[in-house]
Amino acid sequence: MTDAQLAAHLAETAGQILLQVRDSAMFTGKALGKAGDETANQFLVHALRAQRPEDGLLSEESKDTKERLGKSRVWIVDPVDGTREYGEERSDWAVHVGLAIDGRASVGAVALPGLGDGAVLRTDRPAITSEYNGAPRLVVSRTRPAREALAVAKAIGGELVEMGSAGAKAMAVVRGDAEIYLHSGGQYEWDSCAPVAVALAHGLHCSRIDGSPLVYNQEDTWLPDLLICKPEFADEILRLVRELGPDTSAEN
């Protein structure tokens, strides 16, 4: 089984497990989110250690160790990206299984179990999306849209689309349901590794919002911002963000 096949299989299976936990009717709200996180994480960690014992591993739901820093291949997973949305039984949550090789998001899969159509976006099966000629659509947080995203949307006449998890937002661009995902204000490596790997495989632009590369398997797993978009928008968006300047508010 190739790395891409393994990532897709694990993401899909973890998604099925999460749906079973949700449908058990034993938990609701935050308790459901916690149960889902713990159950999916246990499965993913056990499976990766069994299938790729020589590789490093970083999971949001497991205690981090420095052992991974000496490895060129590190699996970076988020068992439930969008725990709040999962606990609220919404559809906009995801499962991330990514593989960083020498710091680059290289292989991965993102499952979207909440959509109910078995969607698993993966690096080894890039899809072609239909053409869209309307106003650019920017996916943003339901609760705190990025300052930069609001400014860019205004400047380019874009339409804001509110959505939950980082994976759901990134895959909206991959699936052709949006053109731009611009985020600032805080994320970690597990929030973006698998989505970035998938987005790159589909020919999308992926970078920090200053245009620098997204680098993974760092000692500090904080990776606060990113831009995923169709390539034709990248230069203009990066220019607009530079012109906007840094956010000096207390929140950041």
From TrEMBL:
PANTHER family per the UniProt record, alphabetical: 3'(2'),5'-BISPHOSPHATE NUCLEOTIDASE 1
Required cofactor(s): Mg(2+)
Binding-site positions, Mg(2+) = E60, D78, D81, D191
Name it. Answer: 3'(2'),5'-bisphosphate nucleotidase CysQ
Q: Which SUPFAM superfamilies match?
A: Carbohydrate phosphatase (SSF56655)
Key words, A-Z = Magnesium, Metal-binding
- Judging by the UniProt lineage, the source's domain of life is Bacteria
Name its species. Pontixanthobacter luteolus
Q: Name one GO molecular function term.
A: 3'(2'),5'-bisphosphate nucleotidase activity
**Its GO biological process terms?**
3'-phosphoadenosine 5'-phosphosulfate metabolic process; sulfate assimilation
Magnesium among keywords: yes
Is Oxidoreductase a UniProt keyword of this protein?
A: no
Q: What parts of the sequence cross the membrane?
A: none
